[in-house]
C-alpha cells in the first residue's frame, strides 16, 4: 500500500481527522488532479467536473478537522481515487 493509499484510507476511515497533516492533504488533492491557488492563508482547489472548491487553511502543521471532513465528502461524492 503506497503513501496516497494509506492517507486515503486514513481520511475515509474518519477516526483521526484532527491528525491529518496539512501538506499531506494538499499533496493528495494535487494527486487527484486538483489545481491549487493560494490567496493569503487560503489554499483554494479546483478541478474540472467537481462543483465544490475546497478551501483549506493550516492549523499549525495539521489540516483543520472540518476541512478534512469536507475533503472526505468530496472523495466519496465524486469517487476520487477509484480511477487508479
Automatic annotation (TrEMBL):
It comes from the Bacteria. It holds the Pfam family HicA_toxin. Signal peptide: none annotated. GO terms for molecular function: endonuclease activity; hydrolase activity; mRNA binding. InterPro entries: HicA_mRNA_interferase, HicA_sf. Keywords: Endonuclease, Hydrolase, Nuclease, RNA-binding, Stress response, Toxin-antitoxin system. Belongs to the HicA mRNA interferase family. This is YcfA family protein. It comes from Desulfamplus magnetovallimortis.
Amino acid at each position: 500500500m503506497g503513501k496516497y493509499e494509506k492517507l486515503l484510507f486514513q481520511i475515509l476511515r474518519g477516526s483521526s481527522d484532527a491528525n491529518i497533516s496539512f501538506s499531506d492533504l494538499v499533496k493528495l488533492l494535487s494527486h487527484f488532479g486538483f489545481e491549487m491557488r493560494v490567496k493569503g492563508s487560503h489554499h483554494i482547489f479546483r478541478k474540472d467536473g467537481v462543483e465544490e472548491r475546497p478551501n483549506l487553511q493550516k492549523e499549525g502543521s495539521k489540516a483543520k478537522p472540518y476541512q478534512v471532513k469536507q475533503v472526505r465528502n468530496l472523495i466519496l461524492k465524486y469517487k476520487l481515487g477509484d480511477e487508479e
